[in-house]
């Protein structure tokens, strides 16, 4: 039933993806290191948005730009290998490649990389967050490979349903987008602290952080991505409930995974609200977004490993 | 999504004389009501609901697994008793969870209903008048044209109408003005979202009140009817009485489990026949992800296992055949199962009762006298049994599990072991008194669940509406555009001043620039057709 050669090809692609992403990460690091903004106030003030010390594209040394392009291309190649790994795995077992935790988490990371690439292509200044996205991506993939790996195999009966396509694909899509959103909020927290200090007149040693987009841009990006992810997540939960009605005999039963999906939903709703509530704008709302990501990861790891719920069969 | 509280009627003016106690109470209640119905409170309550559900996922819950709760009690007796007092093993049906839920419900009503009314009214009111200081709006531009003021405003009006704005023209302090607004769907989405959230809560509550759920293990060839007495376990809402249950009877004709090569379960199917209200029986196959849905009731297969069958021949020759009891799987991978067959009635003359307690392996392997199961398929079914004789204690008044013996009876010596054996199908063991117990075969049983939740269609509809409202709220932006004209500085022509205000999550700069570009172009064409043609003089770029 299982095509072993495809299955091992999938494993190879996985490794290739990790290696290529790591190379991209190195290139991104090099870009940051060599691409110090030309540190003369006047120059920066001339063409760049004034907020903070963000370097405008024009002041970027050519070498850094080249490194940046290399990093982007490598990320794209990694994504192709990453996708190929999932496709071959799906083909090896003749089913959708998200039937267990290994595959599910791999798709989540794929969506996160894709979300980053879309952001970086649409708004080139966001390219500079690459290190901070690819870093967690490489670490997550390595952990997924070491801890969650399972051999390719057939689906258990409960998962043989059309809803696997609907529910799990949207759950991964939402999760991947929230993943990027959460990282951007973390960067925002760091960057806005730095801008605050700069504004209060403190003399700051130059830092790689200066190469990040301005806090305002980061905040807006985090919010936009969360706005994109929220309806998808809502849909995933509703689809899960519809499936549960057919599979488990009730649409909602406070199973641990359901409970934490609900909690995540509320946290993200709170984040979207907080952004428009006076007193919560800026850092406090960014913290809520970070908590949201923590809840998502907790839901994936704790609920599958520690507690026994109905989702557990899809587990490790 | 906004968090501005709905506008409220002004507080009643305090009368000069000291208010009567009645007034004071009323005023206090009014204040509480307002606090409760503020959007912020609703948010806090929503948050609280999330926090309150955390213990429900970390501690074992009775609604999910009574066994896990019992285990917790055994491990931490004192702590468990305290937790239980706080309803922490029944979080989702606890009074404090209900309290949050109820407060949230009231708060939502108080905050959504006025808002919905307000919005309904705004659908029929024209866009607001032009603000005095147009240039202070987030987006603003000025265009000069040789056209007279009214004609310039015509151009703006046309451009706005093309963009599906609702436009109104008013006579302002300094001449004609245009206000345009679009994106009412945003607020409609908001109201829809919140109202649907209310509907969803109502549907959930209704389902809990009028819903029930019963489950039962049915061995092939047997059946049951939908009544609380027959179920092994059931749960029902407070407003359900036994008589409300649909008259539904189900027989399990055949059960089949299919496995992949690596023993992953591929499918479970149960051939059932059912009848409603004593009508004609209908045959149907149900399985995982494929329940039987009747009008209001659903029938599921939620699990399966084996019921070993025994034949008992008493010393006097009386044969009891086809005795079977479901054995519960202890290992879902190999379906190794445990259970007990209780035989309280051995027929006339018998003073003793019998019980066959045992371990069933669908594919058994015996190593050093110990039977284990290696495959969930019944390739070589075997049992390891211990036979007890004596008094089972079934009529002692205490509830007893059908899957195990009453340990008290054994400890007390009223139930004694009289034999043990490992048996393959057809093999038997003879007890000291001459009774012969034969393992004659097995049947499969299915765990069948009947559910009734009148709220679930409502909940589905409401959640789809929640999603629709959410999309409206997040994707549509409400835009207001205002324009006024003033005579040009040198006496000829007109200066057109346009500003816009957008509520939404997208970048608005480009859209405004596009609008201004189109207006500018249209003004130029119009002016070229007219007698005095002059290009726009200045255009102030909107701040980005
Ligand atoms: C109300 C019902 C449901 C909710 C709220 C829900 C929620 C979720 C969530 C939040 C995830 C994301 C995974 C994570 O963060 O760990 C997920 C994944 C998944 N769900 Fe559901 N779900 C529901 C019903 C179902 C049903 C009925 C099935 C199948 C019978 C199912 C199968 C899966 C699978 C296979 C995954 C991905 C794999 C994994 O987590 O290992 N879900 N679900």
Describe the structure.
The complex is a heterodimer of chains A (316) and B (544). Chain A has 316 residues and is mainly α. Chain A has one domain (4-314). Chain A contains nine helices and no strands. Chain A has helices at residues 4-34, 41-47, 62-93, 101-122, 130-148, 163-199, 215-247, 256-274, 283-305. In chain A, helix 4 runs antiparallel to helix 5 (130-148), helix 6 (163-199) packs antiparallel against helix 7 and helix 7 (215-247) runs antiparallel to helix 8 (256-274). The longest helix of chain A is centred in the middle third of the chain and has 37 residues, at 163-199. Chain A is flat, with a radius of gyration of 21 Å. The model of chain A is unreliable at 38-58 (pLDDT under 50). With 544 residues, chain B is α+β, with helices and mostly antiparallel strands. Chain B has helices at 21-36, 39-58, 66-75, 77-85, 95-122, 149-162, 184-210, 407-411, 456-475, 509-529; strands at 139-145, 166-172, 175-182, 212-219, 223-225, 233-236, 248-259, 265-276, 282-287, 292-293, 297-313, 319-324, 328-331, 336-343, 353-361, 364-367, 370-373, 382-390, 415-424, 428-430, 436-452, 478-487, 494-503. The longest helix of chain B has 28 residues, at 95-122. Chain B is elongated. Chains A and B meet through helix 7 and helix 8 of A and helix 2, strand 8, strand 11 and helix 9 of B. Protoporphyrin IX containing FE is lined by residues 100-101, 104, 158-159, 167-168, 171, 175, 237, 240-241, 243-244, 247-248, 252, 257-258, 261, 296, 299-300, 304, 311, 314-315 of chain A.
């Amino acid at each position: 039933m299982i095509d072993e050669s495809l299955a091992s090809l999938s494993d190879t692609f996985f490794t290739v993806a990790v290696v290529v992403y790591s190379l991209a990460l190195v290139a991104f690091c090099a870009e940051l290191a060599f691409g110090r903004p030309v540190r003369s106030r006047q120059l920066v003030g001339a063409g760049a948005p004034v907020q903070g010390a963000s370097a405008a594209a024009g002041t970027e040394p050519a070498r850094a730009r080249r490194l940046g392009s290399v990093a982007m291309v490598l990320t794209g190649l990694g994504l192709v290998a990453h996708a190929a790994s999932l496709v071959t795995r799906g083909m090896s077992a003749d089913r959708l490649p998200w039937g267990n935790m290994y595959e599910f988490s791999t798709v989540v990371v794929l969506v996160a990389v894709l979300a980053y690439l879309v952001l970086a292509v649409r708004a080139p200044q966001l390219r500079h967050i690459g290190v901070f996205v690819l870093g967690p991506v490489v670490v997550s993939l390595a952990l997924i490979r070491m801890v969650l790996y399972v051999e390719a195999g057939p689906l258990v009966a409960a998962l043989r349903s059309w809803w696997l396509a609907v529910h799990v694909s949207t759950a991964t899509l939402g999760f991947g987008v929230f993943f990027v959103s959460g990282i951007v909020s973390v960067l925002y927290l760091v960057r806005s602290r730095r801008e605050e200090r700069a504004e209060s007149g403190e003399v700051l040693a130059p830092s790689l952080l200066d190469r990040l987009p301005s806090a305002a841009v980061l905040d807006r990006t985090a919010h936009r991505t969360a706005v994109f992810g929220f309806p998808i997540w809502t849909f995933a939960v509703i689809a899960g409930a519809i499936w549960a009605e057919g599979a488990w005999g009730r649409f909602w039963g406070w199973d641990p995974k359901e409970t934490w999906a609900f909690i995540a939903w509320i946290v993200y709703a709170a984040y979207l609200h907080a952004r428009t509530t006076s007193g919560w704008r800026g850092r406090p709302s960014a913290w809520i977004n970070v908590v949201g990501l923590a809840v998502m990861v907790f839901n994936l790891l704790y609920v599958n490993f520690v507690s026994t719920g109905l989702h557990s069969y899809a587990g490790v | 999504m906004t968090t501005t509280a709905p506008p409220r009627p002004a507080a009643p003016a305090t009368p000069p004389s000291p208010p009567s106690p009645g007034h004071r109470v009323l005023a206090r209640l009014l204040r509480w009501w307002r606090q409760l119905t503020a959007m912020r409170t609703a948010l806090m309550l929503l948050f609280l609901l999330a926090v309150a559900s955390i213990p429900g996922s970390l501690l074992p819950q009775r609604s999910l697994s009574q066994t896990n709760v019992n285990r917790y009690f055994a491990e931490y007796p004192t702590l468990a008793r305290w937790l239980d007092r706080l309803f922490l093993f029944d979080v989702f049906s606890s009074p404090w969870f209900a309290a949050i839920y109820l407060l949230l419900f009231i708060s939502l009503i108080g905050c959504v209903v006025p808002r919905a009314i307000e919005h309904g009214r705004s659908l029929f009111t024209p866009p607001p008048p032009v603000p005095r200081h147009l240039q202070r709006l987030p987006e603003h531009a000025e265009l000069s044209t040789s056209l007279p003021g009214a004609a310039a405003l015509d151009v703006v009006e046309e451009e706005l109408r093309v963009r599906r704005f609702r436009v109104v023209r008013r006579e302002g302090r300094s001449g004609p003005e245009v206000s345009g607004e679009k994106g009412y769907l945003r607020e409609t989405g908001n109201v829809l979202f919140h109202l649907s959230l209310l509907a969803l809560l109502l549907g959930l509550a209704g389902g809990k009140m009028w819903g029930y759920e019963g489950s039962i293990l049915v061995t092939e060839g047997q059946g049951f009817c939908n009544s609380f007495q027959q179920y092994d376990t059931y749960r029902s809402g407070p407003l359900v009485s036994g008589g409300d249950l649909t008259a539904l009877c189900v027989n399990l004709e055949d059960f089949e489990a299919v496995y992949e090569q690596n023993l992953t379960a591929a499918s479970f199917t149960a051939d059932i026949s059912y009848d409603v209200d004593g009508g004609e029986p209908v045959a149907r196959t149900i399985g995982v992800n494929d329940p039987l849905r009747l009008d209001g009731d659903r029938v599921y297969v939620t699990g399966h296992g084996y019921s070993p069958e025994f034949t008992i021949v008493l010393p006097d020759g009386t044969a009891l055949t086809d005795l079977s009891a479901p054995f519960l799987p202890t290992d879902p991978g190999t379906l190794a199962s445990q259970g007990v067959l209780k035989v309280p009635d051995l027929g006339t003359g018998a003073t003793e009762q019998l019980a066959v307690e045992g371990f069933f392996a669908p594919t058994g392997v015996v190593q050093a006298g110990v039977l284990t199961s290696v495959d969930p398929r019944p390739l070589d079914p075997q049992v390891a049994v211990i036979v007890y004789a004596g008094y089972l204690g079934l009529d002692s008044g205490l509830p007893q599990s059908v899957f195990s013996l009453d340990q008290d009876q054994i400890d007390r010596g009223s139930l004694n072991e009289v034999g043990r054996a490992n048996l393959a199908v057809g093999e038997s063991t003879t007890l000291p008194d001459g009774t012969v117990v034969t393992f004659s075969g097995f049947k499969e049983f299915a765990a069948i669940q009947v559910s009734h939740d009148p709220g679930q269609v409502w909940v589905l509809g409401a959640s789809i509406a929640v999603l629709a409202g959410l999309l409206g709220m997040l994707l549509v932006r409400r835009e207001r555009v205002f324009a006024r004209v003033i005579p040009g500085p040198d006496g000829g022509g007109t200066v057109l001043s346009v500003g816009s205000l957008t509520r939404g999550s997208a970048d608005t700069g480009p859209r405004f620039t596009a609008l201004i570009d189109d207006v500018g172009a249209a003004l130029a064409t119009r002016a070229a057709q007219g007698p005095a043609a002059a290009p726009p003089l200045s255009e102030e770029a909107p701040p980005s």
